[in-house]
UniProtKB/TrEMBL annotation:
Signal sequence bounds: none
Lineage of the species this protein comes from: Eukaryota, Metazoa, Chordata, Craniata, Vertebrata
Organism of derivation: Merops nubicus
Protein name per the record: Trafficking protein particle complex subunit 10
Chain intervals with Basic and acidic residues compositional bias: 10-20
InterPro entries in UniProt: TRAPPC10/Trs130 (IPR045126)
Amino acid sequence: MYLPSATESAAEKENTTNKEVHRKNKEKQKQDNCMATVDQKVTIDCPWSIYSTIIALTFCIPFNAKHSLLSAGKRKYVQVCVQNLSELCFHLSDNSLKNSADCRDLQLVPLNPESEQVIYSKQSIFFVWELKWTKELPLSLQCLFSVSFCPATSEEQSLILKPFTYEFQVENFFTLYRVKTEIFPPLGAEYCKTGSLCSLEVSITRLVDLSEVDRDEALTESD
């Protein structure tokens, strides 16, 4: 996505010092926005001139995505977080998550609203899919996330933009631990009440043996 910078005045074009100041201010503004950028140059040739005009363009990547694997009992979920890095607001629609390996024994059931969502500047939106399988989970899962977007401003909604895509791989589906918590009321009381001291019981059960890699990274007893 190309975000045009402010137009330089005639005095700035004639003064080299002002150009350098403008360039530094532009670089500082780019760092403050914390946006990933891609710089490109376009050369324009005129048939009635022997000189070529070089125009520098800076394309900003509007989104950043990351994924995580969630587990609740025997149910597993894939979560994708989309963060808006730009100063603009966007409409998000038609989100999807596909398995590149085309495994028929595995289904990705979306748990997201089908309606259009608005993502504001510096905001993050989460998308979740539940994994459902008939036989056994594959050793790895190749995923391709896609979501369509357009600027939320009315004058820029006519822009035709390609969907934002994010490709990732999920491995190690095994659930190593099960965590169960329960809060008990004080002795002699039937319910937990505000202001009363209650006890919290946490139970951690190891479901499968740790592999050699996990055993090396596991916490020691002193930790």
